[in-house]
Automatic annotation (TrEMBL):
Cofactor requirements of the protein: Mg(2+)
Any single Pfam family the record assigns to this protein: NTP_transf_2
This protein's name: protein adenylyltransferase
Polymerase nucleotidyl transferase domain residues: 25-105
Lineage, top ranks: Archaea, Methanobacteriati, Methanobacteriota, Stenosarchaea group, Methanomicrobia
EC numbers on record: 2.7.7.108
Keyword Transmembrane included in the entry's annotation: no
Amino acid sequence: MDTITREAGGECARVIGILRGKKAYLEETYHVGSIGIFGSCRRGEEHEGSDVDILVEFSEVPGIFGFLRLERYLSELLGKKVDLVEKSALKPRIGRRILNEVIYV
């Protein structure tokens, strides 16, 4: 287990491991350039029923249906609701906080 995964802890470490294992697939199928987690999972504050906040940057921008397909795929893969956020859509104020806490896989 690497430093980032150890730092993340429990559920976050599980999510990181799954995403790392699918990284090539995500790049090839959904044109994901980078992907990372943030929010309660990242901070170790998740609880039963928490979603997983995922920040994504695309190498090729998908349409709305492509974006929604990726969000649905990630939810099914992780077994919990995913809140998918595109890096380019971050507002400056909240974006700084997210970028400071995100762990990229």
